Amino acid sequence: MKLIVAEYKDVPSLYHAAEAFRDKGYTHFETYSPFPIHGMDRAMGLKQSKLGWISICGGLIGCLSGISLQTWVATKAYALVISGKPLASFPAFIPVTFELSILFTAFATVFGMFALNKLPEWYHVIFNHSRFHLVTSHGFFISVEDKDPKYDESTISALFKQTGGETIEVVTDEN
């Protein structure tokens, strides 16, 4: 794998560079910053995340499993007739159903996020960049992967320079 990486001096220049790469048709590029940047997904042209759907599915599974488990226990496994009350008393099921919904939503969200972000990722080529350690404090970077259909080092370097990129560097696995 090979990347070409440029460093930017601040958030607005990184944001506008991401828009420029999106507008030029690049699809396999990534931005790095020490904090989340509002609107960067839109600037990069990324689609809406599927994590919300994963979370709601986890919550619905938790809700259905809570109701199903309690209904089965109350009517079949351990049926107790007390004072003529119905076997399946749904108001009594609300606390457990709510808690299982929250638990399953939390698990679905965490594991869904890990899956969508392809985590844990112990190594990436960008870690070989000479100044990438600055991304944890005050560095802003854009990288373009060689699997991008429009990957051409000279064209990308020119676009980096045009958008204010500094410290342009080609990074490979061999560095």
Can you walk through the features of this model?
It is a single chain. By secondary structure, this protein is of the alpha+beta class. It has two domains: 2-47 and 118-172, no CATH class; 51-116, no CATH class. It has helices at 11-23, 40-44, 51-77, 90-116, 153-162, and strands spanning 2-8, 29-32, 140-145, 166-172. α3 (51-77) runs antiparallel to α4. The model has no long low-confidence stretch (mean pLDDT 95).
Please provide a brief summary of the model.
The protein is α+β, with helices and mostly antiparallel strands. The protein has 5 helices and 4 strands; from the N terminus they run βαβαααβαβ. It has 2 domains: 2-47 and 118-172, no CATH class; 51-116, no CATH class.
